[in-house]
Write a structure and sequence with these properties.
It is a single chain. The chain is mostly beta strands. Among the domains are: 79 residues, Immunoglobulin-like (Sandwich); 386 residues, Beta Barrel (Maltoporin, Chain A), CATH 2.40.170.20. Helix content is 5%, strand content 59%. The protein contains 5 helices and 50 strands. It has a 22-stranded antiparallel barrel. A 5-stranded mixed beta sheet has the order 9-14-15-12-13.
Length: 793
């Protein structure tokens, strides 16, 4: 019996070994022109093994014999799948047909970079975003990209959020959606809170660090971020998503798509709502958004009409905490809306101290291919924004509102408690266009845009304890502004030899800005900028590539800059040197940069009366840095994605007014510019439908001002998140059910990612002044969670 058992076991092992016979599948992956496509992920379906193409488009993968399915993923809504019968080593070359190259990609191809361009960039796809997309804003979802620092006013990633890249704030990150500028034309800021849950409608995004390639909108001084919204899908689908978590956070949305009807037409859309109390006291958010797209598609034509937008109501949380003792004892305290008693104590909070804003976007894109070599895109767009923030004001002067003093019970009254609304009603419209010519080893891109912004700023009093001679909703200020922005660019990418390519890019931009506000004064400025870019890319072999580039960037001041006087435009010379390494299991991007500024408008650390950061020209300054990021497949079950950014960011011979005298402080650190930013993501794939990731972020200490004051320093911090995803694929009407979990700040770090710093002078009693300072902090949430489920039909 024992011998029989051994015999049967040996037979079983032999059969297993025979059935486990594996062979090599290899080949190249190329576009319709025959050009190799590097960085394409190749996965074996129903198994946790994969590889990626190198710079020659080559891949190889060991697979079991029998019928198998290989899945090829690149920047497209749907993966390309190939079913094969493996009985030995086999070559499988993939040469994409024209219909495989989605016309959606052409909407952004004129302003995006690829591995053949001497530009530092990172891509993030919807597939990578999905496990953590449970209601937090796009900046928070980008937190683990190289050189990125994010923050949240409410402390938990819902509501007002911000992003900095290479130490540059959001006003320097040029954002486009399908090639259309999204930055506010006046403030240059990006307010993601106006488009909540927008990540659910994003197919992929690209973050270019530094000046990057020429794009539409304000010039990029820290980065360019361009987003491509959902592509046209062939098959009909429906999806219901829901998530809930800490601070009474609740996110719900529905998505649908008809697929291609009559092989040409499709309609898709999304409705979303997000609610959260926020980590900070009363920092609540009530957010609604929508996305609707209609498309016509044939072999050479794509026409897309998009309508999307949102409505946000957020309780104000932009004041932070200035008292360090309060920060230690009550770090969720929010002073917004405070009502004070006769002795200066807080007796209550106004319940509607909110920001209330709506924004609607319309885009119409027409993409046309002409033969094998020409591709054109023409778009028109219109954005309508309107809303206000409401404040309870205690004991405000009548004179602030143009009101006359009055007599009450025999006493002269010239102050009052009141509730005011400060409004912004604006229109932004224009056109963008591009034409791409490709043949053999030559690519030419011509493009540009013409955009107009019209803004109406006004204030209303909706209630006053003593109204003087005012009427209901009298406007106590009424300012208009108008901005036109014309830009054209030409880009050339030419292969000089098999391994060497030359890149050239020239942009002309003409900006006119008019304003008449009390804060800005009378403004009528015109700016003309010429921005050249040039670089070389050298492919050493199938796995190694070097690039070297120079780019010039120029930017006009924003509206808030005029509050401080007569700001000058700023200029940047950006030098980039990079190395890319791609092989079957490892991808490395390494680059060094030197960004030299003239008249850079750096953040002073101070805020204006609506919480917007103030800036000032600082003469000469620079940023010098080294960035590394990698993706490594460890065996068949682990993926390791570390990144590291080291930098030195200096104002040169910084002049500061201290105690009434101008002092040269020498070289000082640029505000909000940590010297070390590191990210690390380790993903375990225990099964085809299970994914577990541990994500860690480290940000070194940074100064909130430019004078290296110890009181303006933020401590370094480290946070770690845990992300889980599990998918069920039932048979029948329901295609897929995906459960997701996100545990943020696992180790409950008490950290601060943002703050403000200001200085002020007081008389010293000897006909002079003494300079004092103050610091405010935005605490972030400790350990918190989000749980979600997504059902696809």
């Amino acid at each position: 019996m024992k011998s029989l058992f051994v015999f049967l076991l040996a037979m079983l092992l032999s059969a297993t070994a025979m059935s486990a016979q594996e062979y090599k599948v290899y080949g190249t992956f190329s576009d319709p022109e025959g050009n190799p496509m590097p960085g394409v992920t190749v996965m074996l379906r129903n198994a946790n093994r994969g590889t990626q193409t190198n710079f020659e488009g080559y891949y190889e993968l060991t697979v079991p014999e029998g019928e198998q399915v290989l899945v090829y993923r690149f920047l497209a809504p749907d993966a390309l799948e190939k079913r094969i019968d493996v009985s030995g080593d086999m070559r499988l070359d993939i040469n994409l047909e024209e219909e495989d190259i989605l016309l959606d990609e052409v909407l952004v191809s004129a302003i995006r970079a690829n591995p053949e361009n001497p530009v530092t960039f990172s891509n993030l796809t919807a597939e990578e975003i999905k496990p953590r997309n449970l209601g937090q804003d796009i900046p928070i979802l980008m937190n683990y990209m190289p050189a990125v620092v994010t923050t949240s006013d409410a402390g938990a990633g819902v509501g007002y959020t911000g992003i900095r890249v290479r130490g540059s704030d959001a006003t320097r990150v040029n954002v486009t959606i399908n090639g259309i500028p999204y930055n506010d034309a006046e403030s240059h800021g990006t307010f993601w809170v106006n488009m909540p849950d927008f990540a659910t409608s994003v197919e992929n995004l690209q973050l270019q660090r530094g000046v990057g390639t020429s794009t539409n909108g304000a010039g990029a001084f820290g980065a360019s971020l361009n987003l491509l919204t959902d592509g046209v899908k062939d098959e009909a689908y429906a999806q219901v998503n829901g998530s809930a978590g800490s601070f009474n956070t609740l996110r719900t949305n529905i998505k649908f798509g008809t697929g291609l009807m009559n092989d040409h037409f499709s309609v898709s859309g999304r409705l979303s709502r997000i609610q959260s109390d926020g980590y900070i006291d009363r920092a609540s958010s009530d957010l609604e958004s929508y996305f609707l797209q209609a498309a016509y598609k044939d072999e050479n034509t794509l026409v897309k009409a998009l309508l999307f937008g949102g409505h946000e109501i957020t309780y104000q949380a932009w004041y932070g905490i200035e008292d360090e003792e309060l920060l230690r004892t009550n770090r969720t305290f929010n002073i917004a809306g405070a009502i004070y008693g006769d002795n200066g104590e807080i007796v209550d909070f106004y319940d509607n101290e909110v920001d209330n804003y709506k924004q609607d976007h319309f885009q119409l894109h027409w993409n046309q291919e002409f033969g094998q070599h020409w591709n054109t895109n023409l778009a028109v767009h219109y954005t309508y924004g309107r809303g206000f923030f409401e404040q309870f004001r205690q004991d405000d002067d009548f004179a602030t509102y143009g009101l006359e003093p009055l007599t009450v019970n025999g006493s002269l009254v010239n102050t009052t408690d009141l509730i005011r609304r400060r409004w912004l009603d604006n229109d932004f419209y224009g056109t963008t266009f591009s034409a791409i010519y490709e043949q053999n080893n030559f690519e030419l891109i011509l493009g540009g845009a013409y955009n107009i912004y019209e803004g109406d700023h006004f204030g209303e009093i909706i209630w006053a304890r003593f109204a003087s001679d005012s009427e209901y909703r009298d406007r106590y200020y009424n300012d208009d502004s108008r901005k036109t922005d014309l830009n054209t660019y030409a880009k050339v990418n030419m292969k000089l030899t098999d391994g060497l390519s030359l890149y050239g890019d020239l942009q002309f931009r003409k900006v006119n800005y008019e304003a008449n506000g009390e804060d800005t004064g009378l403004v009528d400025d015109e700016f003309n900028f010429l921005n050249p870019k040039v670089g070389l890319t050298y492919r050493m072999n199938a796995s190694n590539q070097l690039y070297l580039s120079y780019a010039r960037g120029s930017r006009e001041p924003n509206r808030n800059d005029y509050e401080s006087g007569s700001p000058k435009p700023e200029f940047l010379n950006d030098y980039e040197l990079g190395w890319r390494f791609y092989n079957q299991k490892l991808r490395i991007n390494a680059n060094a940069y030197y960004m030299r500024y003239k008249d850079q408008l750096v953040l002073t650390g101070a805020l204006n009366d609506v919480g917007a950061p103030l800036r000032e020209n600082v003469g000469d300054s620079y940023r010098l840095g080294l960035e590394l990021d990698a993706s490594l497949m460890l065996g068949s079950n682990f993926v390791w994605q570390p990144n590291l950014a080291l930098s030195s960011n200096k104002n040169i011979d910084y002049i500061f007014s201290r105690d009434g005298e101008l002092v040269n402080l020498g070289n000082t650190n640029i505000s909000y510019s940590p010297e070390v930013v590191a990210g690390n993501v380790i993903t375990w794939l225990p099964g085809e439908r299970t994914q577990i990731s541990v994500l860690t972020k480290y940000v070194s200490e940074q100064y909130l001002g430019n004078i290296d004051a110890p009181s303006s320093k933020l401590d370094a911090y480290t946070t770690t998140d845990l992300n889980l995803q599990y998918e069920i694929r039932p048979e029948g009407f329901i295609r897929s059910v995906v459960f997701s979990g996100l545990l943020n700040n696992v180790f409950d770090a008490k950290y601060i990612s943002n703050g403000y710093y200001y200085t002020f002078d007081i008389p010293d009693g000897n006909n002079g002044v003494t300079t004092l300072d103050g610091t405010g902090y935005y605490p972030q949430a400790g350990i918190n969670f989000l749980l979600g489920a997504s059902i696809s039909f």
